[in-house]
Each structure stands twice: as C-alpha cells, then as structure tokens.
Protein 1
Amino acid sequence: MADLTIALAGNPNAGKSTVFNALRGVRQHVGNWPGKTVEKKEGTCRYDGYEIKVVDLPGTYSLTAYSLEEVVARDYIVEDKPDVVIDIVDAGNLERNLYLAIQILELGARLVIALNMSDIADSRGLKIDINKLSEGLGGTPVMRTVASRGEGIKELLAKAVEVAAPVAGFEKAA
C-alpha cells in the first residue's frame, strides 16, 4: 500500500502523461488526440522514503461532468480524495488551463500547479511571475517544469510530498 497518493490532472495535451512517465521513470506511448486517456492510469514511484501512488487522470478542461473524462476526473478527486493533486498546466495557455485549477481548489483538494512547457512560453516571450500566480491562487504552490526533458520533475515531486505528507499523517521527511 502506498504512503501517499498523487493525482495528475490537466487539460488535454498539457503534458500529463509526460509528467506521469517522468515521475515513474518510464517511457510509454503518448498520444495527442482527444480521448486518448479515458480511464485513469496508475503507477508508483519512491521519493525520500515514501512509496507514492501516482494516478494519471483523463485530460479534461473542467470538472462539470458533461463528458466521461470529466466524470472520471471529478469523481476520483471527490471520492478517492488523493493526498494532493498536481494540475499540469500548459504555460503557453494559462487562461484556458487555469479554469480547471480553480475548480480543483473549489473542491477543497490540496493542489500544486506544474507550469509545464515553460520553455516554450519563454521562447514566445511570455513572462510568468510564479509568485504572483501562486498568490492569486490562494498560495497554491506553482512549479516550473519541462517534463519532456525531465526539468523540474524532482522539485515538483518534492513540493507535492511537502504539501501531502502532513495531511496524510506523516511528519516531514528528514
């Protein structure tokens, strides 16, 4: 049985499966078409003495439960209550992607934002102040990642464990 559970949420094509694979240290086929991940995928990883279950939820734009993807994602967050949700956000499409983050926060879930593909946003001249973004989201941690190159993944996992461990009944790992 896992010590902690992390759910990965996010819009389609934001890099959820890439983050899932990077966290677990494996490669799987990643598709870029709607509905590729309709059911959740699960795997495990270890970090700082914790065994962590990682759940890759279907890509969805919202949790309003109009589509199968939305139902699966919402029901998992509400009913299974993961220790923390990492919302993988496409740094180049913040406005569209942050709607889901707000809905996750409204459900009362503990949240960490993975500002993924931040290298592409940088190359487009987009400047994102992660401290102001975090502040605007009620203090929700925001971490820059480039999952396709593994950048920021260890830091993202460390932040997710930091947010989840006290709630799961664990003292901060030494």
Note: Strands lie at 4-10, 41-47, 50-56, 84-90, 111-116, 142-144.
Protein 2
Amino acid sequence: MIERYSTEEMRRIWSQENRYSKWLEVEIAACEAWNRLGLIPDDSLERIRERASFDPIRIAEIEKEVEHDVIAFVQCVAERVGEDGRFVHMGLTSYDVVDTANALLLRESLEVLRGELSSLLDCARDLARRYKHTPCVGRTHGVHAEPMTFGLKVLNWCYEMERDLARLSWVEEEISVGKVSGAVGTYAHCPPEVESYVCEKLGLKPAKVSNQILQRDSHAVLTSVLAVLMGTLERIATEIRHLQRTEVLEALEPFKKGQKGSSAMPHKKNPVMCERICGLARLMRGYAAAALENQALWHERDISHSSVERVIWPDAFNLVHYSLRLTRRVLEGLVVDQERMARNLDLTRGLLFSQRVMLALVERGMDRKEAYELVQGYSMRCWEEGKDLRELLEGDDRVRALLGEDLARLFDASFFLRHVDEVFSRFGL
C-alpha cells in the first residue's frame, strides 16, 4: 500500500483486520444458512455466533506453516469456537468467502469515494458560480481562440464530475455480487440455498453462474471507472498547471506561508499539487491495465489474479481518495487573477474576434471563402507585425463598404458571453 497517500478511512477498510472481519461475516452467514437447512444445530450456531473471532497474529503463525491464508483464518476461527468449529467453512471453497467479502470491501470503498467526490463537486460548483461572468480567453490547441468565462470552464469540470459520480453508483451495483457455489461453481457440497441466504443477508446479489470465482470483467470495469475518474482530476490539474505558467498566470494553486518551491530558486511557486495528481492518474491507468489482464484465467480459475488484486485494490482506492481530497484543497485555495485574465484577452490585439468579423462580412453579402481569406490575411499581419486587427480592417475598402461603423461593435467580448446564464441554468446555478 502506498502509505504516503493513504487516508484513515481507506486504511481501515483495507486493513488486515477489516478484511478478516468481512471473511468472518461470510462464514457466520453460511453457518446460519446451514442451520436453516437443519445441518447445524441451534445450540451449535449460537456458540459459533458467540465465540467466532480471530487473532491476526495467530493467523500469521498458521499461515507460515500451511502457506494458505484462508486455511489459516478458518483454523484460527475454529480454534476459538471449539468443538463446533468443525461447522465453520462447511462445504465452502476459499473464494466463496474471499470474493463475497471482496464485494463488501469494494462497496464500502466506493461509498467513501462517492462522498468525497460529492464534496469536491460542491466545491467546484461554488467556484463556477463565483466566476460565472468573469471573462477569460478560451484556448484550443493551447492557442487563443475566443472569449469565454472562467466560470464556464469550471462548470465543464462539474459536468464531468457529475458523470463520474453516476459511474461510481452504477459500478457499485455492478460489483455488489457474491458467490457460494464451490470449487468449480456446481454447488456440489453447498446448495444454492446457502448462497441465496448469504448474499441476501450481506446485501449482495448472488451470481447467476460462477466457477471458483466471480469473473473479473466487473472488477476490470470498476478499476477502469476509477481510472476515468482520475482522468477527470488530471484534466482539472493539467488546466491549472497551464494557467499557472508565468506567461499566463491566470490561476494558481494555493501556496501557503513558509512553503518553498525550489531548493535552488527562492522565487519559485510551482504547481506541485496538480503535478502530483497528474502523476497518480498515470499510476491508476496502470492499475486499470493490470485489472484488464486479470480477466483471462485458466479454465475454472487460476491464482494469477490474486497477487495483482492484493496490490492494486488497496492502492487504487487510497490514491483516488487522496487525489479527490487534494483536488478539493486546490480548488478551495485557488488564486484566480481576474485582472490578468482581462489583460490576456487583449494580448493578441483583437484576433479573438476574427470569426465574428468574417461572419459579419458573409451576412453582408461577401463570399465565405473571400471573407475567410481577407480576415486571415490581416490576422497573419497581427501575428507577424504585432498590429491591431481592428485598425487593419478599418483600412480595407471592402470592409468599410460592407460594415462601416458596425465594425467597432464586433470587437465586444460580451457578445460571446450572452448565453452563459442559460448554460448555468441547466445545472440549477
């Protein structure tokens, strides 16, 4: 587990203690099912409920000898139960317990992520609302395109996070499945009634069919959903990294008192939190690739997926949870320079309005190809000579003849922002 990025909630969920607790829930539920079928006496079940527990140290001692974690766990529980311990794990195979318990761990982890993402989304909505009408440059390919607002930029992040939140809920349903069907899925030593009872008690759906395990396509989907969520956070972080560049300097991640940006250059304020988020997104995509590799197992099951999942599941949930919290910290402390945004709107001397001028010429009767080439020609002079587009256009006889005094009003940024309120209303903002 990547301890540096581990949070208290996720540490608890993926702790050995909680893992064993989930295993015990499955084992006791199975005993209750056998009791309902008349194969475990009532008094024995009562003693199992009272005495069933585990000691991680004792489990570790047994595992050193038997080289099998579930056997070690079952033996430890049976020792504590006493004579009735013989009923524990009756008719089950290891992954009846492990995969059903895994569903509980994954579900618990997803609930934490949903809460954290909801908090981040609320923070982003507040930011979007605050800068709803703050004009800034819209960029495509990293190049100035047309005016927009900073709030609209953030609102786009919100929309993506809403989809991420919906995917987390959907994938929780996808993985909330248990199985108690035996060594190859035939229920040979444990009838379907046991599986039905165990799953119902634990709030899971029983798999319609399984072999020794639950198939790993759902787990691959889950890990991919987490990778997509990290891609959203990376997109936000990448945007802020670009906006913090010295040449742009429109928004900066928080930089607290006493913080240092460089061991060599005292002036540095680097977007280190955003860079960290981007790095962790890469790691999460690697975990998604590993989960996809787990789908194709030999026959009714091999164990090659197990070692992978012991690493990627705790790590993945820890790093996503950490990244969600870190992104919220960035947005809550984001420094937005509205004056710099206004100055950057004028940086290219009117080039942002080229499309509006071209369309106005077309509306007044000029051929579109001619209008495009006319405006492009003057735009290239702006780039190369540092001249003002409006002044150049005012000197053109064709433009004056078609647009006259209307040319000036075409260089008004508010024209581009007139539908911002309508877009925000779609989100209730």
Note: The radius of gyration is 30 Å.
Protein 3
Amino acid sequence: MPRSEFLGGFELLVLLALLRVGDEAYGVPIAEAIEESSGRDVALGSVYVTLGRLEDKGLVASQVGEPTAVRGGRAKTYFRITAAGLRAVRHAQRTLTNLWSSVPLKGATS
C-alpha cells in the first residue's frame, strides 16, 4: 500500500464510525459514534476536515442532499465509504493486529 494511503489515527476513527453509522451518514452521527466509542468529545469541525481529506484521498465520497426547512434551507452533505476506503480500513486492521500480536505482555512498563 503506498504511503499516501496510510491512515492517521483520527482518519481511521472517522472511517470506522462511518461504517458503523452506515452509508449516507453525515458529520453529526459520525462524531457521535466516535464519542460513544471513545468516551471523548469530538469537535464537529475536525470530523468535517477529516472527511474532506479522506475524500481527497478517494476513501470516502460525498453527496449533497436536499435542503430542508428544519435546517433553515441548508442541505446536509452525506458520506459513504468507497471500496478504496474499505481496503484501507482492512489494511489498518491487519497491520494493528500483526503489531499487537507481537507486543510482549510480560515485563511491559507502564
């Protein structure tokens, strides 16, 4: 996998949350999924910046929905993971699993 396709930690969290929420998700439920999983607050702006970076890399795709009166006439931008994004997540999982399996449990310092 080319270096440009390696995921940063938050990028991986965003992709995993997108998979958890499902296709056509938008920023708020993605941020909520990360918060629920990690117990940490997530800035919505950081989610959207990361989604933009992932889209530039071809790992997610976006689509603008219809404007709604509830949102003051604004439209939501929905995201879905691409095949390349799914491959990147699987590669990260294999890499982390391989690294984790070789971590010595005895004598580890805290």
Note: The radius of gyration is 16 Å.
Protein 4
Amino acid sequence: MLKHVLRVGAIILVVAIAIVAYMAWPDRAALSVADVAGTRPTLTEPRVQTIPTVGTAKPVGWAKGETPTPAAGLAVKAFATGLDHPRWLYRLPNGDVLVAESNSPPRASGGIQAWVMGWLFNRVGAGVPSANRITLLRDADGDGVAEVKLPFLTGLNSPFGMTLFEGQLYIADTDALVRVPYHDGDTRITAKPELVVKLPGGGNHWARNVIPAPDGRTLYVSVGSSTNIADNGIEAERYRANILQVYPKEKTYRIYAAGLRNPNGMVINPITGQLWTVVNERDMLGSDLAPDYLTQVEFGDHFGWPWYYWGGYRDERVDPANPALQQYSKRPDYALGPHVAALGLAFVGDASLGSRWAHGAFVGEHGSWNRKPLSGYKVVYVPFGATGFPVAGAKPVDVLTGFLTADDKAHGRPVGVITDKTGALLVADDVGNRVWRVAAAAGR
C-alpha cells in the first residue's frame, strides 16, 4: 500500500513539475497585435495547446490621483467611483446613465476546467460575487462627475445589456430577457421584472446584450458559447454562439446569425443601418491566433464557430468536422488583434472629441489571459470611411491606455463604452470599480 501511495505521489510530482515547466516557458507571440489587426490581418499557422498559455494581469486598483492615459488632445477623469464591478452602460433619454454592476453567476464546481477557470477569475479580479444591480448615475450640474448615484433596479441575475423599447426597459440577464416599465426621469424601479424569453445560461460567456433592431418591432440579443470550441458537443451549444432576434410582443425568438463565439457589444451602424458587433474568438491556438473582430452582421450569416475562424480557416481540433460549412463561413470585416477580449462597442454618433475621432467606432478591450505578452487592456478607435466600413489598411488607434502597470499589473479593465449627453466618452472599468469620462482637452 505504501509503495502504491509513493508511486502515485511521484507521478503527481512529475506532472506538477511538467506543468510548472510549461507555465514558465509558454507560447509567445511571434507577431505584434497590430500585425493581426485590420481588414487584412496576418494569420500564422496555429500552435495548438493542450495546456493553455496563461498570462494574466493581477489587479492592483487605482491609487488616489491615478487615471488612465488618454490620447493627445483628450482628457480623462472619473465620472463615478465606488461601484461594484461595473460592466455595461446605457444612457437614458434625459441624460442619466445606467450601469450594470454585475459578474458571472456561480459556476458549476468539479473538474480541472472548472478549477482553472475559477483560478483565472480570482487572479484577474473577476471572482467577486455579482452585485446583480443596475445603478443610476446623474450629472445634474454638468461638471462631468456624477454627484447622484442611486440603486435603480436590484434582484437581477447577472445583468448586462439594457435598452429602452416601447416604454419599457429591457434587461438581458444571464439566463433571461426581462422588462420593467420606465418613465422618463425615474430614479428607481420597484416593479417585478416580467419574463420576455428564457435564454440559455451556464458555462462560459455569461454576459448577454440587447439592442433594438432597425425594424422597430424586434430586439437583437447576443448569447456567447458555453465552451471554447464546443468541447461538450455541439448540442450543448444550442441557441448559443448566436445573435438572436426576439419578438417581445409574441415572446418568441429565432436565430438571426450564428457561428459567433462570444458576441458582446452590438450597435446599429448610423451610415448603413445594419447591425455591427464585436466578437471574442477562440483560445489555445497560440498567442497569435485567432483575432477578435468587429463586423457587420446580416440575417442568416454564419461566422464559422466552432469549425472555422476568419472566414474559412479550419480548426482541426473540432470533431466531427463540418466541411460543407467552409465556403459559407463569413469573413469578418475587421480584425482587432489576438485575445484582446473586445467587449464594448460604440459608434462615434454624437461624440464630440475632435476631428480625429469623427468617423469610426470605439471598442473596449477587456484584455487577454491566453497570450504572452498581454494584449488589450485599453480602449481603441477603428476609423471608418464614407461607405460605413472600416478604412482599408487602417489599424486600431489607442484612445485610452494606462490600465496596465509597467510590470503588467492591472489598475483596471475597460468594458462598456457609450457617449454621454455632452458628447464625451464613458468607459466602464470593472476591476477599477469606476466609470471614466474621456472628453476633448480644454481649448481643443
């Protein structure tokens, strides 16, 4: 018995040493983030990983007086502080701002994957319980700081996306789309949320977003995959890795577009009138693959997940294969770089930041965990042309950086981005527990 115990102990020790050795020399990027960004990104051969490269930024928060670094001609300050993991933002017609203070719901325990994900969440500051709350922020005196902070709606289940539609506020919980009555100027909602449709929950990619469709009678709802590459079988991904089209009066939905591993930010392009989204692509193909992306989405589109990425590159890990889908896998419009974790998305719209930022889209990049060196952890701008598509050859332009320290610790991590009533850009920082406001610098 003792020999058996010693033998098992030796095996465990060898495995542990092997894992430590692997973690000490993980896959490193051969290309810059910019190389894997733009309308024609450079794609390397995949470097398939059994044990993932793990590169995380330990959260350290913001010291008094510290702020992110804005681009030249811009200025930044805190719009609101003391929040609890603020993820998503929505501006009401009267200028009030709603912020979803939210996090992943409790995850199923057991198994090495669950253990690894739990470790990662704790490591990057995402292991805190979800506040399950929407908070109202109001800047009544117009000084760029919200002096009013009130609990607007509580008792939700990992809320994320919010939108007004036909006199009601719709909230995308992790497992349901719900709604409550709203009247202009309301500072608190006490009505019990009404269920519109149930949504698939559990697994990875818990955040759901919702926006009105251009037809005036339906809503778009994004639902990310439950695993990296349908690791539990494609049936476990039913109605996931999709953008759904919801009919709120009928309380039904259909798949609008598929093959999007984890779509988050969604907006209607003001020039084309079409739906655009940002998507987190797959992990464990190496530090250079696959690029997260920004793209237009039309009814019936399929972007390839889990079988293909970037318009037809096959992921050999997915079994069974789906060769019939390859020629129909839509290529995204614009790559944002590998593992940047693009979440927030806002077109310029009514932003007033100066001519440099007049025609394009802002993207909140939450930051990588599966890349060496780190990528993301900033807000970028994608220039668009007169046709309503990204400028060919243009790379993402930094708008707000400084979320990482020189030794790769995280002051914060940007998520949702919107414009406020004055034309400034608001950025939710879920690790820094605040909302930043980016405006044109004085005299610009």
Note: Residues 20-24 have pLDDT under 50 and may be disordered.
